[in-house]
Amino acid sequence: MEIYASEGYTQRIKSLLSVNMAIGRL
């Protein structure tokens, strides 16, 4: 359970970081 939750959490962080990078480039 902990590992699965951490994976989902890391995926959210990566998606948020990618969005921030795109916004920063704009």
Explain what you see.
The protein is an all-alpha fold and 26 residues long. Helices cover 92% and strands 0% of the residues. It is built from 1 helix and no strands. The longest helix is centred in the middle third of the chain and has 24 residues, at 2-25. The protein is rod-shaped, with a radius of gyration of 11 Å.
Distance separating the two termini: 38 Å
Tell me the helix content: over 70%
Mean pLDDT: 85
Strand segment tally: 0
The coarse overall form would be: rod-shaped
Percent strand equals under 5%
**Gyration radius, rounded:** 11 Å
The quaternary structure here is single chain
Q: How can the largest sheet be summarized?
A: none
Tally of helical segments: 1
By secondary-structure content and strand pairing, the structural class works out as mainly alpha
Low-confidence stretches: none
Order of helices and strands: H
